[in-house]
Amino acid sequence: MTSNEGFFARKQAAAVLKHGILSRYPTIFASMAGRGEAEVVLYDAYAGPGKYEDGSPGSPLLLVETAIRTASFRKVRLCFSEEDIDNHTKLQRTLTEAVGSDVEWEAMCGPVEQWAGAFVREAGEAPMFTFLDPFGVGLGYDVLTKTFLGRPAQLKTEVLMNINVESVQRIGGRLQEIDSGSSNRAGVEATLERVDRFLGDTWWRDEFRRVRDTSSAAAAARQVVDEFCRRIGAETGFSAFQLPIRRRPNHSPHFILTLFYRHPLAPWKFNDSASTANEDWRRACMEEDLEKRLDAIPLTPSLFSDDAEAEELLRRARLSEWESEERQRAVAWVDSISLNIEQLLGERGFVNLGESILDVYGATLGLARELHVRKAWDQLSERGVASPRDKGLSTLAHGTVRLIAPG
Question: What secondary structure does DSSP assign to 134-199, as a single string?
Fold first, then answer.
C-alpha cells in the first residue's frame, strides 16, 4: 500500500495478531524496562486516526491502555506522529476523549522523518519503545538504524516494526521488467529505488533474483527481510525476533512483525505475547469462517425453533471443535519442544534456556510459550532424561536444563 485511504474503515483479520501484541508487550516493556527509571516513552510513529471507523481501537489507543494499566507504578509518556492532516485531527480528538489527566501525551502532524529525531532527543535517557507500521516501504533505512536504533547502547531501547513483506515481493517482481529491457525502465527504477531506500542499498536486488530464480517471489521476499534484519544487527547490535503475520492460515506472510531488541529477556517475553496473540488470531479466523459458513448454509426452521437457535447450536459446536484443535496443538508443541531439548542435551549436556530460545522452540516459536516449555522440561525430568525444573524461577529464561547421565 502507498496510501492509507480506506485502511482504517475496519480492522482486518491480520490486524488481530498485530494488535494482540500491542495490547500485551508494551505493558511488559514498561513494567520491566521502567524499573528504577523516572519514566518510559512509548512512540507510535504512524498513528493514524487512533481507532477504526467501527470504533475498535487502533495502535494509539492500545498504547493508551498500557499507560493507564501501568499508571499506578510507572510513569509512561506517549508520543504520536501522523502525516495525514485529517487523520491527525481525528487522532487528537480520539486521544483527548480517551486519555485522562494522569497520562502525558503528545501528537504531532507530519512525516516520521520530521519528528523522529525530536522525540528521540526528548526521551533523553528514558527507556523507549517505538512502534513502526509504515505503509509499504515508506520508512528510510537511516531513520531506523541511526535514529531509533542509534541511541547509546546503555539506554533501554526496543523497536517493533511491521515489515510489509508483500510490498517487497510485489516490487521485487518488477526486477524482471528491468532484466527484460522494459521500455519503462525509468518508471520501474523509481519504484525499485523506494525499496533501496527502505532496505539501505541495492544489495537486495541480486538477493531477490537469486532466490526467485530457484524458488518463488514470496521466498525471495522472505530471504530479503531475513538479510535486512541480519544487516541491521551487524550495524546496530540489535537482534531481531521475526513474527509472520498472515491474512489466513497457510497463506504466505503479509507482514513480518519484527522486534529489534538487546536485552536477553526480551525475546522470551515477546514470544509469550506472540503466542497468546496468535491464539486470538486463530480464533478470529475460525469465527470469520463460521460466519461465511452460516451465510452459505440454508437453515431449516422445521428442525429448530428459529434460525437464531440453529445458529447458536452451530456456533457452540464449532467453538467446541476449535477448543479441541487448540488442545491438540498444545500437545504437539510440547512434544516438539521436548524433542528439541533432548537433542540439545545430547549434544551439549546442558541447555541454557536464556541463550537458546530459537533452538528450544524451533518451529513452535511464536506459537508455543513458556507454559509449554515448562511441560516439556517436566516430561523430560519425569522420564529421567533431564534435571528437575526449579519451580521458583520467575522466568525460564533464567533456567538451565541438565542431562542426567544413564545409571
Answer: -STT-S-HHIIIIIIS-S-TTS-EEEEEEE-HHHHHHHHTTHHHHHTT-TTHHHHHHHHHHHHHHH
